[in-house]
Amino acid sequence: MMMGYFWAPRKSAAVERDQSLRAGLLVDGGSGEAAAVPKGYFAVYVGAEARRFVVPMGYLHQPAFRALMELAAEEFGFGQAGGLRIPCREEDFVAIVAALEATAESRQRRRSAAGRRSRSNATPW
């Protein structure tokens, strides 16, 4: 968030709803039963206690997340029953997810700033 003389851009309701959905999905549900996974997301189990996380499919395009998938394939194979296990500590996984979110947010800010610049440079007709 920018401080000082600059105002942070106002988030639309759709962006806030998406961020709250992601925040809710990245927290352990605490229930023993397997909850339904929303469209566009998938569940992974991380750590020694197999804590469940539901993450966006878009993470599969990120090199850091692909490395985790390769570790999972090497350790557990491709035919995992009952969900996808990732062999890393929960703290490491949460740090990777936070880094991916920060990268996505900065990319979105750059796109919106570029869009504002192109509209301000447009010739009025």
From TrEMBL:
N-terminal signal peptide: none
Superkingdom in the source lineage: Eukaryota
Biased composition (Basic residues): 108-119
GO terms for biological process, alphabetical: response to auxin
InterPro entries: SAUR_fam
Region (Disordered): 104-125
Transmembrane segments: none
Pfam family of the protein (one): Auxin_inducible
Family designation: Belongs to the ARG7 family.
PANTHER family: AUXIN-INDUCED PROTEIN-LIKE-RELATED, OS02G0143300 PROTEIN
Name of the protein described by the UniProt record: Auxin-induced protein X10A
Lineage, uppermost ranks: Eukaryota, Viridiplantae, Streptophyta, Embryophyta, Tracheophyta
